[in-house]
């Protein structure tokens, strides 16, 4: 016996009279934050090269936000899931393809897109820069790697009888050649009787399209969180590397210095020593390591001091 709803309809009868156009619905998009670690300009080979975290952006070639910079992305097409949308749009706009994408979160604030009601699913990726070739395409005028700085500039606590609110102000700064993008980001945590609430808002931004300053800020936070407790950054290393080189990659992503002893203990499951050695001019001989695939599969590090 088929189940009937309160109107006396079976499921098939309900579907036969259902009209999608009777219900307001959003458009769906995917936006992709692709990070890498690359060398700064004028970095010297006689010591560890100076590295920086980089984010891939595209310059919009059409309205809205013509001429502004955005994360690669676009609208979902019928018959594809959002991960397929993300992969397709990333390839169409930047030429980058076949990289692993991790779903980050949804962005659904009203009026985040001036065209209509648009909900976006953001994806995150960390790749080796020399493993991909970037080339602008589709409606992107230009594509480029922007150096990323996300630093704390102010902090305050606002206690009350019911709760304790902690506010932290960050400056998000991206730079590519002579182009600079900036945003002021407020992160807050409120602890009270009902538990802990957290939030992140962009107070002002310059040069970003849509709400992509917020997506970029959240992507940096998520990348740092994944790096702090995982071994993903080891995947960026060449076949053989020193532990000093590996630590430098982690410090660039996390945005802070790490204790050498703590770092080496935490990363031990992800690397294995080889019989090879390396010596840079003016430095002592150092043992080379390689990725330990078993360690990458089973363990997580904790890079807290």
Helix and strand composition category: alpha+beta
- Strand fraction: 35-45%
Sequence of secondary-structure elements = HEEEEHEEEEEEHHHEEH
User: Can you tell me the overall shape?
Assistant: globular
Oligomer: single chain
Please provide the count of β strands.
12
User: Distance between the terminal alpha carbons, to the nearest Å?
Assistant: 64 Å
Extract low-pLDDT stretches. none
Using only C-alpha atoms, the radius of gyration works out to 23 Å
Helix content: 10-25%
Helix count equals 6
Average pLDDT taken over every residue: 90
Biggest sheet details: 10 strands, mixed
Description:
By secondary structure, the protein is of the alpha+beta class. The chain is 21% helix and 38% strand. The strands form two sheets. Strands 1, 2, 3, 4, 5, 6, 7, 8, 9 and 10 form a ten-stranded mixed beta sheet that branches. A two-stranded antiparallel ribbon has the order 11-12. The model has no long low-confidence stretch (mean pLDDT 90).
Secondary structure layout plus pairing:
Layout: H1 11-17, E1 27-39, E2 51-60, E3 69-70, E4 73-75, H2 82-94, E5 102-107, E6 118-126, E7 140-159, E8 163-176, E9 179-192, E10 195-206, H3 212-229, H4 243-254, H5 260-267, E11 271-278, E12 286-291, H6 293-298
Parallel strand pairs: 1-6
Antiparallel strand pairs: 1-2, 1-4, 2-3, 2-7, 5-6, 7-8, 8-9, 9-10, 11-12
